[in-house]
Prior knowledge:
The chain is α/β, with parallel strands linked by helices. The protein has helices spanning about 15-20, 45-60, 70-75, 90-100, 145-160, 180-190, 205-220, 225, 245-255, 275-295, 325-340, 360-375, 395-415, 420, 425-430, 440-450, 465-470, 475-490, 495-505; strands at about 80, 85-90, 105, 115-120, 125, 135, 140-145, 165, 195-200, 230-235, 235-240, 240-245, 260-265, 305-310, 310-315, 320, 345-350, 380, 385, 390-395.
Amino acid sequence: xxxxxxxxxxxxAREAMHAKRAKAPEINxxxxxxxxxxxxxxxxxxxxxxxxxALRILSEIGMGEAPAALIEQAVSKGATLNKxxxxxxxxxxxxxxxxxxxxxxxMYGRDSKHDxxxxxxxxxxxxxxxxxxxxxxxxxxxxxxxxxxxxDFTRLADYLPNISWFxxxxxxxxxxxxxxxxxxxxxxxxxxxxxxxGTSFTxxxxxxxxxxxxxxxxxxxxxxxxxxxxxAHISPVISPLRYGDDAFEVALACMRHRMPLNNIIAAQxxxxxxxxxxxxLSSTLAxxxxxxxxxxxxEPGYPMIFSNWPFVIDLRTGSFCGSGGEITLLxxxxxxxxxxxxxxxxxxxxxxxxxAVDAQMGLEKAMSSLGVGLAGCNMVYESxxxxxxxxxxxxxxxxxDDEMLSQVYRVLRxxxxxxxTLGFNAIEQAVFGDGHFLGAQHTMEAMQRDYFxxxxxxxxxxxxVWEEQGAxxxxxxxxxxxxDILDNHKPDYLAEEAESRIRDRYNILLD
Length: 511
């Protein structure tokens, strides 16, 4: 006799339990913005010595090649010129500027659901870089990066939940004219994401038209300044200890439009900075403070991210190293220094030297992203997709990095200890009840709240199941996921009228 059919839609208790387990967590167990600061590579004494050495560098050695306009403004605020004609800042002047500097700032998205606050010890991961090559998903070889690649990376980052903002990760090498390059880069960001973005300006002349483009997208003149969703990535210091005239002009142009500044110092150990870890940290801290002085002598408290990104070169060959214990240590320490000063911190991580999506990539990215995050860096750049010592960027690596960052955020979130999580009642019920915790309410709630469950990338299947499913490695699984996102996630964050007006005014090359 056949079993009586169950009424459609009614689940058994066991089926209901499996359905609940399969559902997405009701509370994200790995939220962006978790607190860092648990890892402190520098002692209090170390910090004091590095800081005072940086103050000495700025007061006695000073900054070379300062633009005339900056010299005039800085001297009027108390700076001096030494015998070599270098611009010097006294310790008292530097400390006064630090005291009045921006301590936190909002990162606005065009959609307010993506807004977040930068400062304190909250950690957010995003992109960055200027890779000139893309790892092709079809051939698994590197080719010149294009404007279409940049737009596709923008769409991909828009979809991935752990990338809190998107900054250009590759250069559109098929756009030769520098004005067209800057404008089309910004247009790809407008078109492809509503998250906070960052862009670079080759020359100051492109700032006004790009802000005009942003205003057009937002619906009117001056709208961007009210909610500046884009920050400017500039490198105002040429290591060692020289100002860059072009970046200075870009900074002033951006400040007129209230665009936040991400002032990046990217010295290289043994080449443009001392080879010793402590020496490099003091030199680059001095340079990042010089960038802070450059901004604050014009407007105290102007929103600026204090981005000290100490990089490493292989002193045997002179080649750039994107990863390793030293670069993890340096960027974690730079974040610790910035947070000690109370300034919004920026550093870099996950810049794999590997050319393939392989085990080397995984170990390098995981180590650096976790180390810099645990140090409490507010804005962790380069965290997604960067390969080949920053020369290349990969779609597959970007989706893998997003899943990796869920694991990193879970570590940062830490352990909640309270009456419920200590589980006395659950232990008592298991001991005097079924003798296990499977299916208990306490277990079900913990599964939803406390654990990150990988989806399609991280494989936890038994070997026979893995073989039946095609025995794919993570590179293959990531390729499937990246293609699926790019095939189906086609956002258009520009109103038709606004896009038409932008295309009429500027040479927009993206189809």
